[in-house]
Each structure stands twice: as C-alpha cells, then as structure tokens.
Specification:
Layout lengths: L1 H41 L7 H13 L6 H12 L3 E3 L10 E3 L9 H9 L29 H13 L19 H19 L3 H18 L15 H13 L19 H8 L4 H4 L2 H6 L12
Helix pairs in contact: 1-6, 1-7, 2-5, 2-8, 2-9, 3-4, 3-9, 6-7
C-alpha cells in the first residue's frame, strides 16, 4: 500500500509541477507579446491622408467588419443617391429593388456592378436576362467581378504594414527552464529509490518514467507556441482611430434621425459603423435583405 502512495505522490507532484511551469511560461509569452505590441505602438508613423487613401475598402478590413459590408455599403449609397428604388414602396414583406436614373461617372466598381445587376431586364445584357418581375432582391445583388478589389485591398494593407497575415505570431525566444518541474524531477529520485528497496519493480519503473518526463518538461528550449498577434498592426489601429475621430459625425448612434447621409459618405459610414447606418438611409432595406444580408455575395462566400 505504501508503494502505491509513493507512486501516486510522484504522479501528483509531477502533474502540479507541469501545470505551474506551463502557467509561468504562458505568463512569459504574454509579457513578450505585450512588449512587442508596445514597441510597435511607439514606432507608429502614419501620414495624415492615409484614411482617405485607403478608403472604405481598406477601413472595412481594419475595422474587423465582414467584407460583405462593402456590398451593403454600396447598395446603401445607391439608395441614398436615388439610383436604387423599391419596386413596391408601400407593400409589406420582402420586396425587390430596381435601378433607375443615370449612374454618375464617379461611381466605383461596386456601385456599378450592383446598379447594373438591378437594371430592368430590357436594359441588361441579354446574357443576364431573367424571366421574373423587374427588380432584384437585395440578397441577390452580388459583386463577383469586384470581389478581387477587396482581396487586393487586404493584400495592400499587409504589404504596407497595416495588417498581418493570419498565422503571424510573436517573435519568440527559447522556452524557459521549468523550475517546478526541476524540483519535481529531483523529488522523483528518492521515490524511485524507496520503490526499488521495497522490490516494487513495476511501480519503480513507472516512477522512473514519470521522473524522466518531468526532466524533459523542465529542460529549456524545446517546443512552444508563441502568442498569436492581432490581425491589425499598431499602424492600422492608428489609421482606424484617425478615421473614427475624423468622421465621428457619421456615427448613427449620435446622428439625428432626420439628418440624411451624403451619398458619397455612405460606404465609409457603413465600413466604420456597420449596418446601423442603413436605418438612416432607408429602414426598409434590412427587412428586404432578411436573413441573407451577408450571404452569397461573391466567389467563395
């Protein structure tokens, strides 16, 4: 019975030592991560015109918004400009929307593709003719041809140091020595000796294996997992801070409900403040999008 207690004590001590060492190493890695991010913030230099240069396509990535916000922002901009209308303005339930008017030359690729998709059938390319009523459901308005612009915007953000690759981690050093595992490994030596004196060969072998594993756990170096870094760099965070500060008047939470958005600022407002902006443009849009507001809008989505 005593032999089993000695072996159990050896297991418990080693298990506790591994846990304490892992916690200590986690603290070291977290401190290394904080130091890395603090140094990155100290080195930030951002040009004043960066917000305008990156535009909504860049800000939607920096803000952690779903890329589909570019589609929703472009649709909202068309509605705000009077270029996209509900086919049955006063009808309840989900309704189609149809393009009207003339698209300005200043329209971007997203607005052009969405507006063209919502044109009446007789005005479209015959290859895209559809045998249904005029107009399109908002969830059917997609931007497969403009999708590459979002990918290019993200690649540009990474190359210019505003974002990181998803797998990027803190540059780490070797794993620190496990102090508690060293103590536990040393304590396993007398435990093995006692078991050998009692001729408990199997239990002595098990205690020896546990001690050997504890030694491996105590050794410096070896395998470890550095902390992941946030997707946005300090440089990107600074750009986002500048954008929120510069365009605070676009925040729908503080903007009077009677104050409409300028069509040219709607995409930027959606990129920064999300779908709450739609209520200030046309409250019927959310209902007409329904549950499909962020689905099926481009290749791979």
């Amino acid at each position: 019975m005593t032999d089993w207690l000695v072996l159990a004590g050896c297991v418990v001590v080693s298990w506790l030592a591994w846990g304490l060492d892992n916690r200590a190493r986690d603290a070291v890695e977290e401190a290394r991560r904080k130091a890395f991010l603090a140094q990155e913030r100290n080195d930030v230099r951002v040009e004043p015109d960066t917000v305008e240069r990156l535009g909504p396509t860049g800000l939607v990535w920096l803000n952690g918004q779903a890329p589909s916000r570019m589609r929703e922002g472009a649709v909202a901009a068309l509605v705000a400009a009077g270029l996209l209308h509900r086919t049955s303005p006063d009808e309840p339930g989900r309704q189609r929307w149809i393009a009207r008017g003339t698209l300005p030359v200043t329209a971007d690729a997203f607005e052009r593709e969405l507006w063209t998709a919502a044109l009446p059938p007789h005005a479209r390319d015959p290859a895209h003719y559809r045998l249904h009523l005029e107009g399109e459901y908002l969830s059917d308005l997609v931007i497969p041809n403009s999708w590459h612009l979002l990918k290019e915007a993200r690649a540009r953000l990474i190359s210019e140091g505003y974002m990181r690759e998803k797998s990027e981690r803190v540059p780490g050093g070797p794993r620190a020595r496990g102090r508690w595992s060293t103590i536990a490994a040393a304590a396993a030596v007398p435990a093995v000796a006692v078991l050998l004196l009692d001729q408990a060969w199997i239990r002595a072998a098990l205690a020896l294996v546990i001690g050997a594993l504890t030694v491996v756990q105590a050794l410096p170096g070896g395998r470890f997992t550095p902390r992941p870094l946030p997707p946005t760099t300090a440089k990107g965070d600074e750009v986002l801070r500048m954008a929120f500060e510069r365009y605070a008047e676009l925040d729908p939470a503080t903007r009077p409900a009677t104050e409409p958005y300028d069509p040219g600022q709607v995409q930027l407002a959606v990129a920064l403040y999300g779908l709450a902006v739609l209520d200030h443009v046309d409250a019927r849009m959310k209902g007409d999008w329904g549950r499909e507001a962020v689905m099926s809008w481009g290749p791979g989505e």
